[in-house]
């Protein structure tokens, strides 16, 4: 059974892996967290592209049938480059699925879906600077306002497992300044970094109740499932009897003990037997 490869700068992509594993229970996965070089979000586009190519190459060498870039920064910067480099192996990023989720949450029938409210994207510095989400969302609805906030501290807090730390609420209040009142809040808050879903509850406590909080995980899983079905690569359709038992391999470029300990926060289940790899 050929696995699906998934990579991120660290542990944030485990939120995407969890959605993939839930949607595709018959599939095996190899997850690579480039923990030695995170965060990607504060680095130049050239550096992010180089790192992404190296991570994808490692997965490609493991003979994966599809590569998921579970990193918003790498998806925004390097998706086309990776598709060209590893063709015909399909490469799927998280920006387009995330934009689709945000656009769908802003229902046209809602009078408040346009105007000042629109979509607020929380992301890394590099993702915000590149404007990939604004382009992807407005390609679906040109009238929908898109605002962005860079939240660099959240990646470090998430990687340290400090999800319920009292400092989180203070930092979120600062990042959301100007968007917390009922008349200034967005209709939809898009978590434009795969590390950020672990802060969903804290964000929902701060925001007005009518603000929809979405991320790219489940939408990306849907895109992958659709691709496997259309290309007839789904392991569920294999004729082997008995079918191989699905497996998940966890790889990290540094800190495997911490990866196993903190990874559960993102994955929602124990993360064990993490392998140390060098890119």
Structural features, described:
43% of the residues lie in helices and 15% in strands. It is an alpha/beta fold. It has two domains: 4-93 and 218-276, Rossmann fold; 96-216, Rossmann fold (3-Layer(aba) Sandwich). Helix 4 packs across helix 6 (132-140). The chain is globular, with a radius of gyration of 18 Å.
SSE arrangement:
Layout (H helix, E strand, L loop, with lengths): L3 E5 L5 H10 L5 E5 L11 H17 L4 E4 L2 H15 L4 E3 L1 H11 L13 E5 L1 H6 L1 H9 L5 E5 L1 H8 L6 H10 L12 E4 L8 H7 L5 E4 L1 H14 L17 E5 L3 H12 L7 E2 L3
Parallel strand pairs: 1-2, 1-3, 2-9, 3-4, 5-6, 5-7, 7-8, 9-10
Helix pairs in contact: 1-10, 2-3, 4-6, 4-10
The fraction of residues assigned to DSSP E strands is: 15-25%
Count of DSSP strands: 10
Characterize the largest beta sheet: strand count, sense, and whether it forms a barrel.
Answer: 6 strands, parallel
Return the average pLDDT rounded to an integer: 93
Radius of gyration: 18 Å
Order of helix and strand elements from N to C terminus: EHEHEHEHEHHEHHEHEHEHE
Cα end-to-end separation: 24 Å
What is the CATH C-level name of the largest domain?
Alpha Beta
Count, helices: 11
């Amino acid at each position: 059974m050929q696995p699906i490869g998934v990579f991120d700068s660290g542990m944030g992509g485990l939120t995407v892996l969890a959605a993939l594993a839930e949607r595709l229970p018959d599939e095996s996965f190899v997850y690579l967290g480039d923990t030695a070089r995170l965060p990607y979000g504060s680095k130049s586009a050239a550096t992010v592209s180089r790192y992404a190519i190296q991570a994808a190459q490692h997965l490609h060498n493991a003979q994966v049938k599809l590569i998921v870039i579970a990193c918003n920064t790498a998806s925004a910067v390097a998706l086309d480059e990776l598709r060209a480099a590893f063709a015909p192996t399909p490469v799927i990023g998280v920006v387009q699925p995330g934009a689709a989720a945000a656009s769908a949450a802003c229902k046209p029938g809602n009078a408040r879906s346009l105007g000042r409210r629109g979509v607020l994207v929380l992301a890394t510095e590099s993702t915000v600077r590149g404007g990939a989400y604004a382009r992807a969302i407005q390609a679906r609805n040109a009238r929908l306002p898109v605002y962005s906030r860079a939240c660099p501290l959240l990646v470090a807090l998430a990687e340290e497992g400090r999800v319920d730390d009292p400092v989180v609420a203070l930092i979120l209040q600062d990042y959301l300044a100007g968007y917390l009142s009922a008349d200034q809040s967005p209709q939809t808050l898009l978590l434009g970094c795969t590390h950020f879903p672990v802060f969903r509850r804290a964000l929902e406590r701060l925001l007005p109740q009518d603000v929809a909080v979405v991320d790219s995980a489940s939408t990306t899983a849907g895109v992958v499932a659709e691709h496997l079905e259309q290309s007839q690569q789904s392991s569920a359709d294999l004729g082997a009897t008995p079918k191989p038992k699905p497996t998940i391999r966890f790889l990290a470029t540094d800190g495997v003990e911490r990866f196993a300990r903190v990874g559960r926060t993102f994955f929602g289940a124990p993360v064990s037997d993490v392998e140390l790899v060098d890119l």
